[in-house]
Amino acid sequence: MENIKNDVEIKLVALDMDGTLLNNKGQVSEENRKAIKAAQDKGIIVVLSTGRSLLTAREHADDLELTSYLVTVNGSEIFDEKRELVERNLVNSDHIEWMWDLSKLHKTKFWAINTERTWHNEMPEELHKLDWLKFGFTIEDDATRELVLKELTAKGEFELTNSTLKNIEVNASGIHKARGLSVVCSKLGIEMKNVMAVGDSRNDLMMIKEAGLGVAMGNAQDVVKEAADWVTDTNEEDGVAKAIKKWVLEK
Prior knowledge:
Strand content: 15-25%
Helix content: 25-40%
Largest sheet: 8 strands, mixed
Distance between the termini: 17 Å
Shape: globular
Structural class: alpha/beta
């Protein structure tokens, strides 16, 4: 499979965070850090493309001295190199309330991200006055998860992904990391064929499919590995560093 991609010129590296860039302790390994620095020194743009909000992604971006855009909340928000908002794509507050009711009906755990904070298993009284970016369900029971997924799908209003096998992430229809990256690429004058995207979950699937080089982590969900052009090592084995070395630094 690799031989097909050996002529790809990578100009931008898009990295998911949890399960990809970060190890299981939520840290960036020294090897990953060195590889990212070496890529940036070579003139390669490195972009975090994450399900997290700016509040929890920014610290890592600043710590890594990333000098470019951030794609956050699965593409619901895009920020420039000064961390100023470029684009925001909201989930209708009526839909947020409907999903909250759905979580109560099926007795599931949930979280919800608005432009100010993340709510866990509770919601503000005046939810309709806030701007919402994403809703998520955490459901241990497979049958209940399938039931909730079926109801969400039937609604026909959402982009449905996950960040683990036990959850469902809900964004506005058509909003995903690949779309966010395409916006970034257009602003930078780069084509998606010159992007290497690295991830592990369903919320990475679109960017892995649409990038010139899609890389799945060794710990990635099977559906992600099947869609990828190449599989690297796990997030505990510096998989990001190994992908950057092979496809960027050794070219």
